[in-house]
Design goal:
This protein has 340 residues and is an alpha+beta fold. It folds into 2 domains: 89 residues; 229 residues, Bira Bifunctional Protein, Domain 2 (BirA Bifunctional Protein, domain 2), CATH 3.30.930. It has 11 helices and 10 strands. A 7-stranded mixed sheet has the order 1-5-6-10-9-8-7, with helices on both faces. Helix 1 packs parallel to helix 4 and helix 2 runs antiparallel to helix 4. The model has no long low-confidence stretch (mean pLDDT 86).
C-alpha cells in the first residue's frame, strides 16, 4: 500500500512538471482527485476491509489528498507569477526611446486680452461678475431705461427666442442683476462675456462678439472718477504717454454719456492710416449711470451715483495687434492663431 502511494506521488510530480497553463492544471487535479481517480478506487475498496485496515487506509488517503491540493496550489501560484512576468515583459516600455512630441496650443488672442483687462481691474479693486447669455427682456432692456417701443432698441437688433427671452445684446444685464442682489450697497464690478446682435458679418462686425462692461455705484461718484479709471486702463494697455478724450454721446442707460477716444498709439497723434489721419482712435462708450436705472434697481439717485462703461474686446485686440478683419477671431485658422 505504501508503495502504491509513493508511485502516485511520483506520477503527480511528473504530471505537474508538464503543466504550462491553468487549464492543464485543472485537468491534472481531476486526474488525481476526480471521480475516476486512483483515490476514488481506493475508497471503493474500503468496504471490503477490516475496521483497522479502513482506519489506516483512510489516514493515508487523506494525507495524499492534502499533498495533492498543496502541490496544485503551489503550481497555480507559480503559473500566476509566470503570467505576470510575461505580461510585464510584453508591455515593457523602453524609456530611453524618443518620446512622441505633442504640440501645445496658445491662449486665443481674445482670451489673452480679456484676462489682461481683468487683471488691471482686479488690481483696482473690482470684482468679476457673470450672468446668463440667454436673458430676459426685463434685464436686457427695460431696467436699463429701454422700455418696449423705445427707438434705441433698434440700435441693438436682437436674437429673440420668444417675446420675453433673447440672447443678450450686451453684458449690462449682469450689472442690473448685481445691483438688485446688492440691495442698495456699493457695487464695483466688471462683467466680461459674449454678446449677440443681428449684425451682418463683415470685416468690422460679427453676430457674436465679446464685451467687458464696468459698473461703479457708491456715494459721491463723479465723472472725474470715470475719466481717471479709463485713463489708467488705457495707459496700462497702450503706454503711459497715451491721452484720453471724452466726446458727448447718447446711451439710454447713462446720462451724461460719452464716447472715449485715445491718441493713436501708432502715430502718437500725428495722423496715420490706423486713425484715418485724425490722430485719435475711438475705443469705448461710457457715462454716468442714469438716475432712472438706479431707481429701478432700488437705489436712491439723490444718495447714490455711479459710472458705467463698455469695452469691445475684439476692437481693442484688433487695435493692439493691427488685425484688419474681426472674422479672423472665429474661423479657427491656425495660420492666424499661431501668431499669438
Amino acid at each position: 500500500m505504501d508503495n502504491q502511494f509513493k508511485l502516485l506521488q511520483e506520477r503527480l510530480l511528473e504530471e505537474l512538471a508538464k503543466v504550462k497553463t491553468m487549464n492543464e492544471l485543472h485537468e491534472t487535479k481531476a486526474l488525481f482527485l476526480g471521480k475516476k481517480s486512483p483515490i476514488q478506487e481506493l475508497f471503493a475498496r474500503m468496504k471490503d476491509l477490516s475496521i483497522e485496515e479502513k482506519k489506516t487506509l483512510g489516514q493515508k488517503v487523506n494525507w495524499f489528498k492534502n499533498y495533492v491540493e498543496e502541490a496544485i496550489a503551489k503550481k497555480a501560484e507559480a503559473l500566476e507569477q509566470a503570467q505576470i512576468i510575461a505580461q510585464l515583459e510584453s508591455e515593457a516600455i523602453d524609456v530611453s526611446l524618443a518620446g512622441i512630441a505633442f504640440s501645445l496650443g496658445n491662449k486665443h488672442p481674445l482670451t489673452k486680452m480679456t484676462e489682461e483687462i481683468e487683471d488691471i481691474f482686479i488690481g483696482m479693486g473690482y470684482a468679476i461678475a457673470e450672468g446668463p447669455e440667454v436673458e430676459l427682456d426685463l434685464y436686457n432692456f427695460e431696467m436699463l431705461n429701454l422700455p418696449k417701443g423705445h427707438p434705441a432698441r433698434e440700435m441693438q437688433d436682437s436674437f429673440y427666442i420668444d417675446g420675453n427671452t433673447l440672447l443678450r445684446t450686451h453684458t449690462s444685464p449682469v450689472q442690473v442683476r448685481t445691483l438688485l442682489a446688492a440691495k442698495q450697497q456699493p457695487v464695483k464690478i466688471i462683467c466680461p462675456g459674449k454678446v449677440y446682435r443681428r449684425d451682418y458679418d463683415d470685416a468690422t462686425h460679427s453676430h457674436q462678439f465679446m464685451q467687458i462692461e464696468g459698473l461703479v455705484v457708491d456715494r459721491g461718484i463723479t465723472m472725474s472718477d470715470l475719466k481717471g479709471t479709463l485713463t489708467v486702463l488705457m495707459q496700462k494697455m497702450f503706454g503711459s504717454s497715451l491721452e484720453v478724450r471724452f466726446r458727448p454721446s447718447f446711451f439710454p442707460f447713462t446720462e451724461p454719456s460719452v464716447e472715449v477716444d485715445v491718441t493713436c498709439f501708432k502715430c502718437k497723434g500725428h495722423g496715420c492710416s490706423l486713425c484715418k489721419n485724425g490722430g485719435w482712435i475711438e475705443v469705448l462708450g461710457a457715462g454716468m449711470v442714469h438716475p432712472q436705472v438706479l431707481k429701478m434697481s432700488g437705489y436712491d439717485p439723490n444718495e447714490f451715483q455711479g459710472f458705467a462703461f463698455g469695452i469691445g474686446i475684439e476692437r481693442l485686440t484688433m487695435l493692439r495687434y493691427g488685425i484688419d478683419d474681426i472674422r479672423h477671431f472665429y474661423t479657427d485658422d491656425l495660420r492666424f492663431l499661431k501668431q499669438f
